[in-house]
Each structure stands twice: as C-alpha cells, then as structure tokens.
Amino acid sequence: MTNRELKKAGLKKTLPRKKILAILEKSANQHLSAEDIYQILRDQHEDIGLATIYRVLAQFEISGLVKRRNFEGGSAVFELDQGEHHDHFVCLACGQVVEFSDALIEKQQLIIANKFGFKTEDHKLIIYGTCRKCQKSLGKQP
Ligand SMILES: [Zn+2]
Ligand SMILES: [Zn+2]
User: What spacing in Å lies between the alpha carbon of 67 and ligand 2's midpoint?
Assistant: First the structure.
C-alpha cells in the first residue's frame, strides 16, 4: 500500500519516504510533528535526520498525501489525507489532538454562509481546551 501510494503521488520510493509514510500509516497518534517522527525513527534505529524529515513531509504535502495542521502552541503536525473532512479538538495542556465531525455543525455552517450570501469551499474548526486526562490531573473535574 505504501509503495502504491507513493507512486500515485508521483514520488519515487526512497527509504526515508517509505519509512515516514509507514509511520504516518501505523502510528496510533494520527497527528505527528516532524520531531515526533524523528523520535519514532530513532527508536527504530533509523538514521534519518530532521532536515530530511521536513523535506519529505513538504513533498508529501505538495503531492496531497498528507495535510499539515498548524495548531496554536505547538509545532505543525501532519496527518494522512484520507479525503474525509473532519475538525479538531486540541488540548492546550498536553497537545493531544482529537478528531471529530458533526453533521449538525457542518449543516449549520452552510445555513449561516447562505444567510451571508457566501458560497463555501472549505473551513477549519479547531476547538481549544483541556482534555479529560488533563482536567483530572489539574484537579478541575467537571
Ligand atoms: Zn491534555
Ligand atoms: Zn485530523
């Protein structure tokens, strides 16, 4: 699958590209920064430098394999572009990213856009807050 995806994106199979794509596909955390990927590669005893990782991620982004997300208070994270629209919760304490999609919110945005005479193309909804785990450790249980 990895190789086919690379070919589809018009990219030659190089070791760094294959390794980085495999990490993005297999990681439990679907929103990884370049530093996260660097750390995982190091744990796998792969000698791939941060500069190479940044370059590969930029190539992946241009070819539509990944989406770059710039959340506040952290470095850019990358996720595989699965084609499905979704929005994000971001924990301001630990940086955890949770995906969600809600039909009602999507519909409501179209209703508002219509009211303003706006034809929509795309949107990004990011809700910042504190995840459940951090609420507990901060002693602020709801
Ligand atoms: Zn948190
Ligand atoms: Zn996402």
Answer: 8
Of 42, 38, 29, nearest in space to 57 by CA: 38
Output the pTM of the full model.
Answer: 0.83
Nearest ligand to the CA atom of 93: 1
Ligand 1 centroid from CA 128, angstroms: 10
Partnered with residue 90 across adjacent β-strands are 97, 128
What span, in angstroms and rounded, lies between the C-alpha atoms of 72 and 61? Answer: 20
E runs forming strands in 36-118: 66-69, 77-80, 87-91, 97-100
**pLDDT, tens digit, 9 for 90 and up, residues 37-91:** 999 999 999 999 999 999 999 999 999 999 999 998 878 999 999 888 999 999 9
- C-alpha torsion sign, points 81, 60, 125, 70: positive
Please tell me the distance between residue 136's alpha carbon and the centre of ligand 1 in angstroms: 9
81: CA distance to ligand 2 center in Å?
A: 9
